[in-house]
Write a structure and sequence with these properties.
Elements: E1 9-20, E2 23-35, E3 40-44, H1 51-58, E4 67-76, E5 79-80, H2 86-95, E6 97-100, H3 104-107, H4 114-126, H5 130-143, H6 149-152, H7 162-174, E7 180-184, H8 192-209, E8 212-217, H9 220-226, E9 229-234, E10 237-243, H10 244-249, H11 254-261
Parallel strand pairs: 3-8, 3-9, 6-7, 7-8
Antiparallel strand pairs: 1-2, 1-4, 4-5, 9-10
Helix pairs in contact: 4-5, 5-7
Length: 316
Amino acid sequence: MPDRAASVLDVRGLKTVFRTRGGEVHAVNSVSFHLEKGELLGVVGESGSGKSVTMMSLIGLLPSPPADVRAGEVLLDGRDILKIPPQELRRVRGARIGFVFQDPMTSLNPVFTLGDQIMEPLIEHMGMTKAQAASRAVELLELVGIPDARRRLKSYPHQFSGGMRQRVMIAIALACDPDVLIADEPTTALDVTIQAQILELVKSLRQKLGMAIIWITHDLGVIAGIADRVMVMYGGHIVEQAPVRELFANPQHPYTRALLKTIPAISGPREGRLEVIEGQPPILMAAPEACPFRARCEYRHDRCDRENPARRASTA
């Protein structure tokens, strides 16, 4: 079994709901996982499975109301950051946990230069002078592969391509040397060539800096190439966790098996076929008591309507 006491991040029993006029949406349901120092954890699942909401719940990025983190612990080096004051949590977000959002164009402020936006957390959280922050900002832009970095500090987001803006977002997330980097589908809006460049960049930065990374995606091909361990989510639940090689070789949960079948095959009996998962994701208005995948599962039986089968995590 893994040594959870040595984990940089340990999430236990996290529950998040959204209060709406039609009732409560149970978006995150008793989610528990850990992240080891230097590990890259891939989080996969369909849109609406709870991947992003889970990670935003960890660090207070959801608006309240309507969001309500109702239960759970989020231990960062043993301290529950769900219980710390908002101002202190803001410092944790800036200095200990970096977050890279999916769309860099809407995440970057269009009226401030890139230099100002990189320097802000350095001045706010690291106590640097403006000159020190500018020097560090140049180093960060060079680290993420942006040429002529000092001149580029005066550029605005619209003057950069999508791939370059995403590199800037990574630079901002790395500004304060965080222990954990959360990347929320950071390559989804980019073409495949730029995606490959960003993935190589992340691999390189991980080797240089040794930080732990949570990589959220719906692309199992990406996970196969970069992750140490995979967490599969469905209907606000974790349905399976396993080392990446084991998950691909021997998936245990019917949803994981169905996901893997949707990857196009280039040879063999499935060559050229595009598999789909029949049915629709669950509506999360009801309290999570039954198996969320039961309506789409070929192995469904009566027990699945009454309870959610216990999940068994593989740690080999």
